[in-house]
Write a structure and sequence with these properties.
Length: 292
Amino acid sequence: MATLGSRRSTAEIIEKYHFSFQKKFGQNFLVDNSILDKIIESAQITKEDCVLEIGPGIGTMTQRLAEEAGAVVAVEIDRNLIPVLEDTLSAYENVTLINADILKLDLNRIVEEHNGGRPIKVVANLPYYITTPIIMALFEKHVPLHSVTIMVQKEVADRMQVGPGTKDYGALSLAVQYYAKPEVVTRVPADCFMPKPNVDSAVIRLTRYEKPPVEVEDEAWLFAVIRASFNQRRKTLANGLANAGYPGIGRKQVEEALCDMGLPAMIRGETLTLEQFSELSNRLFTRRKTLG
């Protein structure tokens, strides 16, 4: 099987298998070898690595990963692509192909089975509609990870790395920055895909922290506070949290906690840093525990 990566080779595979793009799966195949090179380089794959690829498509990036890594586990949701992948990846004995929805898999078990529980590297060209759930599943389920190198919609990549006070700053920014160091590797024009999407993309690498940069009493509570603070962006943080319906946490309690932190009662969530959200969640967590 010839190496993939060009528009021509991709078109030949699509024609050979009479493949029809599924809009529900957000399928856009990368057809630019220079971008492939940048992804592989930024992911820093070695023969010591086990790589999880999400959404291999026709196997374009999978081939390159298989050449660099010790093992590759490729998870593809579209069963119509399985015969294509079995063909394009037939020369690579170090690739395991799984036909499944990544969000329904026990990823910790996969890491245990394929890498003895040691941290893996994730590489993916993620469908835009499901980018955030996949990223959060990888982090919140504490899948052993070195890094996540992914192609996403440019606006999503921007949201992952921005700081307080910007329109793109929100719950995703804080969640990603709690777990990992984000770094945009390169911008990717829409012309680099087949079919051409309506928006440009970006490759971003998320390097997992060994330990989060802030200490929290309860991780789940931190993210509950963050989500409530951004659910109604036009409201003050105190109103947003009071409206969330958490027992024992009303506007008065939030304003008192903000006052103790030296912050104004009318502050909005979009202006708080991760460190400030950490302190606020810890103070509110202590109040909830006191209430019993």
